[in-house]
Amino acid sequence: MDIGSKIRAIRNRKKITIAQMCEGTGLSKGFISNVENNNTSPSINTLKTISDFLDIPLPYLLLEKSEHMRVVRKEERTTTSFNSLKVEHLSSKGGLRMMIVECPPGGSMGEPNAHEGEECHLVLQGKILAQQGEDSIVVEEGDSFSWNASVPHFVKNIGDTTAVILISVYSDSELSDIY
């Protein structure tokens, strides 16, 4: 883990000198220097003292670089198509994925399907029919719904304009593309 470099970067970004950090934490200059150069591994209590002084959550110091925030710029998003649907992949982290699906009038996901996980939907635009098992509901702009995706489900645009749906899918394991 590269905790020391992270501490130094935060300290520098906040324009805090090592002397100020020593005064605020009670730690020596040599110790802080060794921590920032990854020459020593501070205890959890010492890391808590440092994180409190820097006003950052302790768990942030313990995150690996790959666990930090991931940003996908609009122009970097990938788009795929499934039946008549346009699927814009917004973001993913582990078993959680978020996408925007555009469905033309009369368009649908095809046959009801089922897969591992949970889904949450927010209708951003249009009017759709959502079915899961024997349940069926018409939802419109601003409405949301969710379901256990292991039960066969189906979505169809029953409106006169393109429907746009924000969908979040979660699974305990990483999902291969479902759309």
Q: Main attributes?
A:
179 residues, alpha+beta, three-stranded antiparallel β-sheet, 5 helices, 9 strands
Notes on the protein architecture:
By secondary structure, this protein is α+β, with helices and mostly antiparallel strands. Helices cover 24% and strands 34% of the residues. The strands form two sheets. Strands 1-2-3-9-4-7 form a six-stranded antiparallel beta sheet, with no helix packed on it. The chain has a three-stranded antiparallel beta sheet with strand order 6-5-8, with no helix packed on it. The longest helix has 11 residues, at 3-13. The mean pLDDT is 92.
Q: Provide the low-confidence segments as ranges.
A: none
Task: Work out the helix count.
Answer: 5
The multimeric state of the shown protein is: single chain
Helix amount = 10-25%
Structural class: alpha+beta
User: What is the element string, with H for helices and E for strands?
Assistant: HHHHHEEEEEEEEE
Average the pLDDT over all residues and give the rounded result.
92
For the record, give the distance between the C-alpha atoms at the N and C termini, rounded to a whole number.
36 Å
Radius of gyration: 24 Å
Shape: elongated
In which order are the strands of the major sheet placed?
Answer: 1-2-3-9-4-7
* Major pleated sheet: 6 strands, antiparallel
- The proportion of strand residues reads 25-35%
